[in-house]
Amino acid sequence: MDLKKIYLYCITAAVVIFAFAAFAIFYSQDFGFNSTGDEKKTNASVILAENSPETMAENSVLKLVGNSSLNLTFEGMEETGFGNFYHFSTGDGGGYYVDNETFAVVRAVFSSERSSLSGLNITIEEAEKKARDFLKENASFCLDRSLETTDAKLLDHGSYKEYSFLFAAEEDGVILFKRASVSVSPSTGDILNYVSVCRDTEVSLVPKISEGEALEIAEKQFDGIVVNSSSAQLMVDYPEKDSQKLVWQVEITGKPKDYTLTGGIVSIDAQTGEVYMKSSYL
Q1: Residues 74, 54: contact at Cβ < 8 Å?
Q2: How far apart are CA 258 and CA 174, in angstroms?
């Protein structure tokens, strides 16, 4: 297994899911007044609404899709450990999440309709260029450095196909909390969906726990394991809700026991050695 791919899939999935209940916070108001004084109040209210954070977030979505007439429904605010996001949806299954600090669109599902996307009209190299061009135009606020392509493949879902790409920024061998996933239609070349996670680095990238020490800590999490292989990768992460950390993500693969795969992935604080997470293969 490739540890970088596993980890990046996990973090991208976490962003895509946004497993929090959405709630509606918009309500309509009647601004129909008669007197001159009330008319001034109406204008002030309209100006306030037009410059509200929700409206600014909506405008970010409309700019991204290039369609000012797109009918968006505001679903509410989604809260995660590394940011809060305005959530919008469309009638055709599309969905958009906008960062409440930067007003950048950090997740986009352009439509749920995929039935006509079964052909292979562009190569994976052409699709990757389209993905990178999209990120350059729409995610330069975050991905301000060269990105490593950590995974690129064709996914066949039966009713439709898509090229899937994972990108990550690195510094001194450390994967930063600046990553993106982009899916491209092999039939039309259109972007199907996009997710980015982006936070400035707030921690030292120099670990106090060595790679060898991290491997030893991880091995001890699996009783009786006979190690076949192991690997470790330094990453900036949020193992605790609001606290950025430098962590070792360690993969331990052991000899099968009773025909069962042994080992798993362990997340370890690279400064203290504290184990944040253990995920066994089975």
Answers
A1: yes
A2: 37
**How many residues can be counted in the chain?**
282
Query: What region, left, alpha or beta, does residue 94 occupy, with left being phi > 0 and alpha being psi -120 to 50 degrees?
Result: beta
The topology under which CATH files domain 211-280 is Nuclear Transport Factor 2; Chain: A, (3.10.450)
Q: Give me the DSSP letters along 149-162.
A: EEEEEEEE-SS-EE
C-alpha distances in Å from residue 91, one per residue of 7, 65, 84? 33, 15, 23
Tokens 């060269």 locate to: 146
Helix H segments across 175-280? 211-219
Q: Where do we find the tokens 């997470």?
A: 277
Q: What backbone phi and psi angles, to 5 degrees, belong to 194?
A: -155, 140
Supply the pTM of this predicted model. 0.69
Q: Where in the chain is the domain with CATH 3.10.450.40?
A: 211-280
Model pLDDT for residues 169-224, shown as the tens digit of each residue: 999 999 999 889 999 999 889 999 999 988 889 999 999 999 999 999 999 999 99
Cα 194 to Cα 106, 107, 232, 272, 276: the distances in Å are 8, 5, 28, 35, 28
Q: Provide φ and ψ at 182, rounded to 5°.
A: -135, 135
The residue behind tokens 């330094």 is 234
What 8-state DSSP symbol labels residue 20?
S
Tell the residue number behind the tokens 């430098």, with chain if given: 246
3-state secondary structure of 231: strand
End-to-end CA distance of the chain: 15
Tens digit of each residue's pLDDT (9 = 90 or more) over 222-256: 999 999 999 999 999 998 877 899 999 999 999 99
Cross-strand pairs, 162:
155
- Do residues 88 and 105 touch, judged by C-beta distance below 8 A? no
